[in-house]
Amino acid sequence: MKPVLVTGASGFLGWHVARALLERGYSVRALVRPGSRVTELDVETAAGDLRDPASLERAVAGCGLVFHVAADYRLWARNPADLYRSNVDGTRNLLEAARNSGAERVVYTSTVGCIGFPPGGVGDETTPVALEDMAGHYKRSKFMAERIALEFAAGGLPVVIVNPAAPVGDHDVKPTPTGKIVLDFLKGDMPAFIDTGLNVLDVRDCAEGHLLALERGRAGERYILGSENLTLAGILRELARITGRKAPTVRLPYAAAWCAGVCSTAWAGISGVPPRVPLEAVRMARKKMWVTHEKARRELGFNPAPARVALARAVEWFLGAAGNPAFV
Predict the structure, then answer these.
(1) Active site annotation includes 254
(2) Interval 49-97: pLDDT, tens
(3) Mean pLDDT of all residues in the chain?
(4) Can you give the C-alpha Rg of the chain in angstroms?
(5) Nearest CA among 182, 197, 26, 195 for reference residue 107
(6) Which among 137, 151, 206, 257 could bridge 167 via Cys, Cβ 3.0 to 4.6 Å?
């Protein structure tokens, strides 16, 4: 059996995609940066970088299937151009390598941030959206990368696009911004909240959705992988129910959050230390990122668990990892 190339397998979602593939009996080759590794999984590794086309040609050689999960997922960067080099140029580089190698199928991981959100409503794959609707460099770079994936699909490369919502669960080592909500709650480091909303799903279900997209998705189509739309207050109440701890009750006005983001981000620009409150995150929070996964349910058979399952799994894993210096 030809190996399956997975980019981002050393990260949160990519790790779970690699694990799901292994559980299905696939052989996995993981693209990793020099010095990085994929823990706990029996995978072949290929050293490379999305910004290095030659390394991608070597990594994809002999692979029939490709999952491009890797992304520079930062809501603040001292040099924003880095995000475009990895997310935009890197996606083009990888898809060119996949096309040149004769890959039979590519699953590209976009983000629900590239979906349109109607005021007071729920977005889907057909909701109108444009680059100017993207708040911040991360979302803009991912939107541009998604356009590239669609161009390759139109040109004949069998690319299926998935748009994950907010995956939560185990092995969120970094952690992701969503995982940090759980971690901050557990550490008692969230005294207040703002009025925003996310669609939360179990990262294991999200990985399963990637495999369903591989098996049943239509080339050139986008599929939202989500589960349950919750306000941030609702997420915190569910975490309180799971842990028995109190949820914060102070709702912070958006103007106050914006001021905190401006100050925190300005200091980051001076100190080089990532901001505690990235302004880009505050701008993103102004919209409730609520979506429906009905198309994925209908066409892929995607059937995710409720958000409480994902949050409970994340709580269990973060508490178990509490001895790790990253979580202290």
Answers:
(1) no
(2) 999 999 999 999 999 999 999 999 888 888 999 999 999 999 999 999 9
(3) 92
(4) 19
(5) 26
(6) 206
In a domain, 326, yes or no: no
Q: Catalytic pick from 73, 108, 138, 223?
A: 138
CA dist 97 → 15, 64, 112, 218 (Å): 22, 12, 26, 21
Please check whether residue 24 lies inside any domain of the structure: yes
Q: Is residue 285 part of a domain?
A: no
Domain region containing 32: 4-174+200-229+291-310
The rounded distance, in Å, linking the Cα atoms of 5 and 43 is 10
CATH of the domain at 62: 3.40.50.720
pLDDT at 223 over 80: yes
The answer to whether position 111 is within a domain reads yes
Count of domains in the chain?
1
pTM, 2 dp: 0.94
